[in-house]
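Structure ticket #2291
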Amino acid sequence: MSSLPPLRAVQAFETVARCGSVVTAAEELGVSPGAVSQQLHNLETVLNVRLFERRGRSLGLTAWGRIYYERVSLAFDQLRTGQDDLQRAKSKAGIVFSALPSLALRWIRPLLLQWRTIHEATGTRLIGSDDETVFERDHIDFRLSYGRACRQYNQYTELFTDRFVPVCSPGLLKKFPVSTPREILQVPRIDIEWDVRFQKAPSWADWARSIGAEPPERSDELAFSLSSAAIDAAVHDGGFVLGQISMVADDVRSGRLVIPFDERINMPEPYFLAWDQSVLDRPMGLEFRNFIIAAARHQAALSDGRIALMSGIATPPPQAILA
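Resolution: structure written out below.
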């Protein structure tokens, strides 16, 4: 394969052929007419053909020049299209965020509402999905992943490891006024069954062992595959549920849920934030990533008990949190 001529010479040729004038081409390229003429001469020398012929005061393409321009013009059109696409992508104001459905609903959604009050001009779109994403293919900027799934991404950072704690509605607690943590195992309970792609969620049997109690003999009467659905069922007096701190904190603060005994167990793995590298070059991309990371640090303090759910004051986890 023969070597290609210098790109500057090809660019000068394409511009002169498109503009029909060395002077006009020189103005577009920001150089002198003499420099353009020199590039044309160099190109014709490399190609060993005449590309232009004088027609009065203007230049016209020769037969060889027309053949060459048909291909070169297509290449430069593609370059200009690529430049335009890049500029549009860099100036794109919106942010597309993908997260696991329950976490999207109960942790990310309130954060996006906070973000909107600060950056009203930056649109955000939240997609709840169990499936991991391919950023370029799916046109997604950020992904909140759980556990080892983050390894498929090039850029990611650990956010927080959540905890589970037994919660129920005030109405259920009035109906079943438990006086010790062990008694929770004897009243109506709700279970959460995670997708088989994830490590098994901590069960009531795991929680029982964590407090030194025997696992419950009877199976749970009600089970959901979505944590958010299980928590909603608990809000509506369905029973006790092992709720993630990140997902029940707002309900506890509002009084829709209560924590009779603050006995927490860890999730098997942490959450991670992954992102498409190009989003950091766009307006508000870096700020949005830092916003989520800062929120995750606060969530980590809530989940491990350094910040009390009710007061927001840094303190050891209380033994009882009631509305």
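Closing remark: Residues 95-161+270-303 form a domain with the D-Maltodextrin-Binding Protein; domain 2 fold (CATH 3.40.190.10).
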